[in-house]
Amino acid sequence: MPTTTLAGLLSSSSIRVNPDPPSPSTPIADSISTIHAFLSKWDPHTSLSSGFLTAASHLHSYLLHLSTSSANSSHRELVRTNSLLQSAMRRLDQELKHNLLAITDAQSTADQISTVRAIVETMLSTGYGEECITTYQSIRRSAVTSQLKQLGFDISTNLSRKLFKVSWEALDHQTKLWIDAASRAVCRVFYSERQLSDSIFGASPEPIRDSVFASVVGDIATTFFSFPETVSMRARNSPERLFSILDMHEKITNLIPDIEVLFGCEPAAMVLSKVTSAITNLIDAARMSLNEFEKAVRKAKPHSSPGGGILSLSRYVMNYLVCLFDYEASLHMILGSMPQELNTSSFDIQISDDWYGSPVSVRIAWLIHVLLQKLESMAESYRDVALSYLFLVNNLQYVVKKVKSSSLKDSLGEEWVVAQEKKVRRYMEGHVRSAWANVSAALPVKEEEHVERVREFEMLFQKALKERENWVIVDERMREEVRQLVEGMVVPAYRGWYQVYRRTTEVRFTPEFIRSRILVLYEDPESPSGLNSSSSSSVSGSGSNSSNSAKLLCRLGCYMPQEGDLSVRHQEELNETQKGELLLQCHSRDDVAQQGEVSLRLQIEDVDSSVSE
After folding, report:
1. Is the CA virtual torsion 521, 522, 528, 531 positive or negative?
2. Residue-averaged pLDDT of the chain
3. Closest Cα partner for 254 from 321, 313, 327, 162?
4. 85/103 Cα distance (integer angstroms)
5. What's the half-sphere exposure (Cβ side, CA atoms, 13 Å) at 522?
6. Which residues of 205-232 are buried (b: 16+ CB within 10 A; e: fewer)?
7. DSSP secondary structure letters along 438-459
8. CA 517/CA 525 separation, integer angstroms
9. Contact 102, 190 (CB under 8 A)
10. Which residues contact 172 (CB under 8 A, 6 or more apart)?
11. Among 104, 207, 236, 494, which is most exposed with the fewest C-beta within 10 angstroms?
């Protein structure tokens, strides 16, 4: 509140309290002497009496009377009376400070509030309003600042000019403190201060009460709400700060009704203006951070994961998105008015106008789509086509599991999940076909070739075991299904050949050995009993898994030979089949690491360490 405006209000005659005029039967000089004697005997260490306040009011009334008198003696009495009144006001000002320091908030004792209110009304009525407001403002501003500091927000260290110079680590810490303090600052500190000023200045008109409140907390509240605005300006190009931005946006928007009640008066308009500006900047920063996040995914350095396992980028993005969806309400406000310039025609499913359809759902689906495109591009870094497929299997399966185990499933919908699961299935089929069909096809077709071809089979089989011993299939169910498919492609055909030629040809491996090696290859790397626990299962069994595997083998271009059936597909046919197997879209591989990307990944990837996959 500008001082000139408050001064103008204080000088208005409408707020003055005019005491009863002195009795005509009592000389003015005698009355002054009586009041002087009363003031001289007053002890500031004792409780303030109403008689002292009444004497001060009468003194002011006498002063006004003398100022209009034309008597020659009036000038001398006027000077004396004015000096006495100033002395009385100095003592009242000291008493005001003493009592204000004893008040914590509007919940202080009624006697404390009443005493301060009586002092304030006396000082206002005797023309010392500015002095009264200055003292009140000084004491209460200090009290409010102290209360905010106790909440963790130090005004002196959170000025905008200082925040642009502190380190990110320090700013992150201060942001957390602000978020924790915001609700209590508005609903406890500022609200209590409003109650206190209304109680103490209750006899004054509403404009005075509004102006006093604004003069105490206006600048402080403006600095407090400048904090999220300053942080948003620094963090708008930093995806790892998006969650802090959303936390502040959520906090401040939830407090809007209380803020409007407290600062809706004209003298406090600057606070509302700052809050509006802060929200606007937070929205802009959130949008820019989302765009930067997408760019970071697109520009992530292409690299492969050992054994085709889950890429750190996949964990980073999916954990980021799962955490992001917790802010759905804020994101809806942020993205609702934002043009969705997305090429949704490239999605795996067609998005209709009523598709689960909030802007948040569309944006999440788009960011996952960007990740999947990046994974397909990264798959090309593998020289082995089978390993490339395995990489896609592991990473897309991880994406699907993260969606299904989180609230993202409700957002993206069952149709999206089904579409991605079908894609995982196709990748898995491609992996099995690329990895093992050539081994199966090495078995002899013609009797005169059986010696050379069986040696070739043995060589290819051993080579496959050696090359793939460090390959990873993360999902246990899928690992078992791949094992059954591989066993179905290799073991029955080998068993049929073995039973015919084992007596006439030197054979190194028995069908049981072939099967046991496949079991070991696909056992759970963390389970020491994988071979034993899996040895009882067989693709040639009569269960539903066997039936499903047989159907899938036919889809793979293979079939399960019956005992004694030596016919298999020729290698030339396999080569033709493999042509065009892996048609992956190629994207830019600019080796540009966004600032903070690594730290963001380390922070967000930790989510997986505490959540069972």
Report:
1. negative
2. 79
3. 327
4. 27
5. 23
6. eebbbbbbbbbbbbebbbbbbbbbbbbb
7. HHHHTS-SSGGGHHHHHHHHHH
8. 14
9. no
10. 241, 244
11. 104
In the numeric block, the tokens 């048609």 are attached to 583
Please report, as a single letter, which amino acid is at residue 396: L
Burial class of residue 436 in the structure, from the number of CB atoms within 10 Å of its CB (0-12 exposed, 13-18 middle, 19+ buried): buried
Q: Report the phi/psi class of residue 406: left, alpha or beta, with left for phi > 0 and alpha for psi in -120 to 50.
A: beta
Six-digit token string for 306 = 């050992």
What are the backbone dihedrals phi and psi of residue 585, each rounded to the nearest 5 degrees, phi first? Answer: -70, 135
Taking only the tens place, the pLDDT of each residue in 561-573 is 333 333 333 233 3
Give the pair of three-digit tokens for residue 335: 């993205």
Residue pLDDT, tens place only, 194-220:
999 999 999 999 999 999 999 999 999
d(CA 428, CA 439): 17
Q: Which residue has the higher pLDDT, 350 or 363?
A: 363
DSSP state of 536: T
Q: For residue 537, give the amino acid letter.
A: S
Q: Which two tokens stand for residue 428?
A: 């898995």
Place of tokens 């996959």: 613
Residue 341 identity (one-letter amino acid): E
Place of tokens 């905010």: 148
This prediction has a pTM of 0.77
